[in-house]
Recover the amino acids of this structure.
């Protein structure tokens, strides 16, 4: 399920001076972020702060107008999204984006297109071990699943490419609390297995509980950063995101 083994403190990703625009609207401004391998990093902020745009710039879905993206020490700023998947970056977008008319197994197979065919069954088995609720749903259409099961499928599909870096955009959005716990517990297991996780999450308390480090974005810039303990102790963070 995971990519190549990486030293715990090695820097896997860095954004330097990253600026991204949609037409005349600048969504991310001169952003600098560094992420260590095997860590869980939360990206927090209000709606419109630039969180989703940051993930899209990392996965190659959008190209920055300025700045650079480096992955494992290599500049990938101008590398296409499919090639970034081959390098070990997987993006699980907001809204799940599963193929609703394809079966659960077909969704997973599509996520594993880059893997050798002989490995697909074992990769699917790993996903089902992580998300047992999908085991009895392999023949069902993705669109027939509950919201929580669809989120599990979306994460499972991303894991089929054996990513070194997993990007997750609002994985708990719209889910019942019990399902949220199952999904977040799975992220802990994914990280323990060696995959670096970058998490954009509306549930700030849960995100800080999971994270080793966090960045708080404001108007497309990094406004605050630090360990969960440092940010939880920050009065501004408590008032804006943790209910005081």
């Amino acid at each position: 399920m995971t990519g190549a083994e990486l030293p715990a403190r090695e820097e896997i990703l860095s954004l330097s001076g990253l600026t991204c625009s949609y037409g005349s609207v600048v969504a991310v401004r001169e952003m600098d972020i560094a992420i260590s391998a095997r860590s869980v990093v939360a990206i927090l902020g209000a709606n419109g702060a630039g969180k989703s745009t940051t993930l899209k710039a990392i996965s190659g879905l959008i190209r920055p107008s300025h700045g650079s993206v480096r992955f494992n020490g290599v500049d990938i700023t101008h590398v296409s999204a499919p090639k970034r998947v081959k390098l070990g970056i997987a993006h699980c977008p907001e809204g799940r984006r599963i193929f609703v008319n394809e079966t659960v197994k077909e969704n997973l197979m599509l996520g594993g297109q880059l893997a050798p065919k002989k490995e697909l069954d074992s990769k699917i088995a790993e996903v089902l071990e992580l998300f047992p609720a999908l085991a009895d749903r392999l023949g069902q259409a993705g669109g027939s699943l509950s919201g929580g099961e669809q989120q599990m499928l979306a994460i499972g599909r991303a894991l089929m490419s054996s990513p070194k870096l997993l990007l997750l955009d609002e994985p708990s959005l719209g889910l019942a609390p019990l399902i949220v716990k199952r999904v977040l517990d799975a992220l802990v297991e994914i990280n323990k297995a060696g995959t670096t996780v970058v998490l954009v999450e509306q549930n700030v308390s849960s995100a800080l509980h999971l994270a080793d480090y966090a960045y708080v974005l404001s108007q497309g810039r990094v406004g605050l950063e630090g360990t969960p303990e440092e940010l939880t102790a920050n009065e501004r963070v408590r008032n804006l995101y943790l209910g005081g």
About this structure: The chain has nine helices and ten strands. The radius of gyration is 17 Å.
